[in-house]
Design a protein that fits this description.
Spore Coat Polysaccharide Biosynthesis Protein SpsA, Chain A; nine-stranded mixed beta sheet; Rossmann fold; 3 domains; 20 helices; alpha/beta; about 550 residues; elongated
Amino acid sequence: MKIAFISDFFLKEIHGGAEIVDDFLIKKISSHHDIIKKKSIHFSCSDDYDLWIISNFTQLTETSIEFLKHKRYVILEHDHKFSRSRDVSKFPKHLIPADQIIYSDFYRKAEMVFCQSQSHANNIVNNLLLDNIANFGCSFWSNECLDLLEDLSETKKVVGHAFLESNNPIKGTFESKVFCIKNDLNYKSIQKNSFDRIMYELSQVEKFVFFPQVMESFCRLATEARMLNCSLITNGNLGCTSEEWFSKFKGLDLVNFIRRKQQENLDDFIEFLSTGKTKLKVKGKKIPKVSIITSMFKAGKFIDRFLSNIVEQTIFDHCELIIIDAASPEGEVSLINDYKSRFKNIKYLRLDNDPGIYGCWNEAIKIASGKYITNANLDDLRFRNQIEVMINSLEKNPDVDLVYAETFITKDAFTKKIENIEAKTTYPTSTFSLENMVKCLPGCMPVWRRSIHDKNGFFDESLKYAGDHEMWLRAVRAGSKFKKIGGVYGTYLFNEEGLSTSKKTMAKKFLEEKKIFWEYSDVFGLNVTNKFREYFSK
């Protein structure tokens, strides 16, 4: 088998934990398969290999990543590259806000993502909702390194406390030193040096103080301290502490355990490269199903653009697109059938008459099987990850019933690229507010729980223009919670021929909204009610 091993850096360039692990695996794999090292910046889409192993990949281009999505590849996850900051420790329960997640589709398309520890795996599963995660549950050391750790494991302790001296602030040197000083401890700082020298000095230490400022996916140094019979004073940012063996073994027992564990991992990984099967897979989370509902009437000039945009959603495989044809006279069905032949998750229903947009939505909801629902207007466009980001937020916030985000506005009916966007919608607050609903719905493409309709019924079909306004206010009155997500995830077409934006209907829409807001004035309270009195008196 021909294998390409891709990484931003290799061991001769950076002597870091990831590079050490990669070097170990490359040497071991080379005895079973043909393997070549390639730096991310030198990646070529013309290369032809049976398998790509992707290690650190932040220097891969978007073109390279898109190319790899159609190949057989695995990811060796060394930190938390799905987070913009690559740090999950600063977020409650390590749940990253939706607009801070990146590379999610790249992780999802991988044959397997191999992690360093159980907590590392959990962070990926919980943030990306993936079920293709494997956990090594251990790092890798050469036999020479383990031999040295074995020799030093019974060294006499002559130093009470010590910490690692590092210029890298994420290693917590400052915090560790402050801890020692505040607790009036006799301490020693271990200088950055060769591996052998650091291990020798560490072996003489009774208690190792280590307060990393970011979440370590594993932390080799903490494990090495334990193999050297050191006690550990640390925070909750060590992945290795999530493994059962970490508190169970120490000293020589831990060295011997690591030898066995990493050999088992290596055997499993080598087998996986050939068969695609691994015993290391952890229980993941399946992406919940999303029902995308849309009404169609005289959509001839938009339908192709709409369908191509929707099927490109990163999680479209986990969606169902329900198109309700309101007796449209333009024969869009031929193109829809073409898409249906390629995508089995597209449903099409033609009605004998036009019940209005909210009647169409209700028909779609009645046959929808998704946990979540989103409406899709034929003349709007979604960013590829829009639905993924929305449901990710809903899954992390079980008390929230609907999420939305800002959208860009365009008057170009045929724009397909972000470059053509003219303006951005305005939401005065960074979070959902009732006051904001006076002038604007929760976005033009919100995603909500199916349970909203179980509790509050369907859209009011007597309304022609503002039925979504009424539905959301009804839900809020009943206790539903809405959440605004940071970032922009779609484009809204200010269509001069549209139902709610044409000159013929805008006045009628305004009057319908006014009626609804008076009906639900109890929801807003006096201050906001005065705001919409002012708004509707203009």
